[in-house]
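From the methods appendix. Each design record in this collection lists the tokenized structure first, followed by the designed amino acid sequence. Records were kept in a plain field format so they could be parsed without special tools. The example shown here is representative of the layout used throughout.

RECORD:
FOLD TOKENS (94 positions):
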């Protein structure tokens, strides 16, 4: 019974996925990047923002660097979701 459920879930998933080849190729390449890289870049961006604002006294440039933090974290989350989805798909196929 459990195998039938897995097969049904895999079939439903295959029927509902309408992603293009380009999207799949991009996700395949970005999944190779470690998730900690995005977190490291976000923390570095925070540090650069603080340094630029407080030491260099250029608040506008500091804000520019600070605005990258949420974007990097969201990209990291997306990267992690792609990896989880890939593992889930492989489990369903085996």
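DESIGN:
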């Amino acid at each position: 019974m459990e195998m039938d459920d897995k097969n049904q879930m895999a079939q439903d998933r295959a029927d509902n996925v309408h992603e293009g080849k380009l999207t799949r190729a991009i996700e395949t390449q970005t999944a190779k990047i470690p998730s900690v890289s995005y977190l490291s870049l976000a923390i570095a961006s925070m540090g650069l923002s603080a340094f630029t604002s407080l030491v260099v006294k250029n608040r506008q440039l500091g804000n520019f660097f600070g605005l990258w933090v949420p974007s990097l974290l969201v990209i990291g989350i997306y990267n992690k979701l792609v990896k989880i989805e890939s593992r889930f798909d492989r489990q369903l196929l085996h």
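APPENDIX NOTE: Residues 68-93 form the longest helix (26 residues).
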